[in-house]
Design goal:
With 458 residues, the chain is of the alpha/beta class. It is built from 11 helices and 15 strands.
């Protein structure tokens, strides 16, 4: 058993729970103090009862999110899960922002005290507490006091306004991204083959069926030759998988609609059901399978796998795409549908020319600071969103080096790989940013994506 792995996981989980707890306690104390100033007793009581009801919903939503089971404490199909999810998101980031501003205020105060010994000496006189010293400092510098008071209020409010924008606007602002991907030794007849990809639908209380229908209609307008859906059709076991598949079946492409399972199909234990519903709808969900498709008289090999776990239940690192070599064809191009983008190094090693993935949602939130894109997805993968490349047949073990065509990293030189590899071209990975959300129903800087991929002869 890998104790180091479980210890790290425990520390991370404990840190997340602590962050949730302390952020909720912070806002509870703030709201309780604020309502104490109400002159009307009945208004004060009503406000506090409303807040206690909100606390119940918050706890229920947290339990629902952890369980992902069939029964929910908060009814699905209502606005309540969305409101509670927004509160969680806003409360955590608001708490962190307020603490950051207060930390800067404290640091600024200490720096000024260090530069002005007289007030420090005065404040340190017998009978004067540290709190009184801070008050003296604030009274002598009212401009700083007002500035940091305003900055604290703005920092606490900004995440709430950002969450409202991310929920009401950007979460539903679907974008079509077109990407031409060069394929080594591509048959000239396959040059121009187009693939429309959607991923991470997460049909749930946050993603109504009408929005899935809108995305499918936008995908159909692109007139692609092949349609693929790379996993996470729903979020939890109580979500209506048949409704999601019923919308996906409306995808129109001459070469058909194909898909693979994501990690949320595992959580909901619906991998077999998804496969069955796909088949009933005249589509194909590939589960460790391949199929040869023909376009303009030339064939290509389409491969699909279930979500690729990177560790065993005991915490040991596990190779992705086990026995994947049995699915690869050497006499035609290979296209892999794998929900987890971290299978890309192994796919390239096997000689798979193109991998299509999802899973990351692009992090759902992305900010740019000093020309660096910061995204929560960096905690789980190097492949956040967009197009990546690495040499075909390059060894994947003990290496997660990659080429960030989308601006996320610098490409490694061919000389960094062992000379025996002798790459004959580049393998490509495209990571779709997905349609839905998980956790907070918010997208900021990462709008939902429908991808049109066009193969080009390299």
């Amino acid at each position: 058993m890998n104790w180091a792995f479980f210890l790290i996981r425990f520390v991370i989980i404990a840190g997340i729970f602590s962050l949730f707890f302390f952020s909720q306690r912070f806002w509870h104390q703030a709201i309780w103090r604020s309502t104490a100033n109400f002159r009307s007793q009945w208004l004060r009581v009503a406000a506090r009862l409303l807040w206690l009801g909100m606390i119940f919903l918050i706890i229920s939503a947290f339990i629902d999110g952890v369980r992902m089971g069939h029964r929910h404490l908060i009814p699905r199909g209502t606005i309540l899960p969305g409101v509670v999810g927004l509160w969680f998101f806003s409360a955590v980031f608001g708490f962190l922002a307020v603490k950051l501003v207060r930390g800067v205020d404290l640091l600024w105060s200490r720096i000024r005290k260090g530069r002005q010994p007289e007030p420090v000496a005065e404040a340190a006189q017998p009978g004067v507490s540290l709190a009184s010293a801070a008050s003296v400092e604030q009274l002598r510098d009212p401009g700083r006091r007002y500035f940091f008071r305003a900055a604290t209020a703005a920092a606490g409010a900004a995440p709430f306004f950002g969450a409202m924008y991310g929920y009401a606007a950007e979460r539903l602002k679907y974008q079509v991204r077109r990407e031409e991907i060069p394929i080594s030794n591509l048959n000239p007849a396959l040059d121009g083959l187009s693939i429309v990809q959607i991923s991470d639908i997460h049909l749930s209380g946050y993603m109504p069926r009408t929005q899935v229908r809108r995305a499918v209609e936008m995908a159909n307008e692109l007139g692609a030759h092949l349609a693929v859906v790379t996993g996470d059709f729903i979020t939890g076991a109580s979500d209506p998988l048949p409704d999601c598949i019923d919308e996906i079946r409306q995808l129109r492409a001459p070469l058909g609609t194909w898909g693979c399972n994501g990690n949320h199909e595992i959580y909901a234990r619906v991998e077999d059901l998804a496969q069955s519903l796909f088949a009933q709808a005249g589509m194909k969900l590939l589960r460790g399978e391949n199929a040869q498709l023909t376009f303009n008289g030339a064939q290509f090999n389409l491969i699909g796998v279930d979500y690729q776990r990177e560790r065993t239940s005991e915490g040991h690192k596990k190779q992705t795409l086990m026995h994947g070599e049995q699915l690869v064809r050497r006499d035609m191009p290979n296209i892999l549908l794998s929900h987890n983008p971290n299978s890309f190094p192994r796919a390239a090693e096997l000689g798979i020319e193109l991998s299509l993935a999802g899973h990351t949602h692009g992090g759902q939130i992305q900010v740019e600071i000093l020309d660096h894109r910061l995204s929560p997805a960096r905690f789980i993968t190097d492949y956040i969103a967009g197009l990546y490349q690495r040499p075909l047949f390059a060894p994947s073990l003990d290496s997660r080096r990659y080429s960030g065509v989308d601006g996320y990293s610098e490409a490694p030189k061919i000389s960094q790989f062992p000379p025996a590899v002798n790459p004959t071209g580049m393998a490509s990975l495209y990571v779709n940013r997905g349609l839905g959300t998980v956790g907070a129903p918010v997208r900021i800087g990462v709008p939902p994506e429908i991808t049109l991929i066009v193969l080009r002869r390299a």
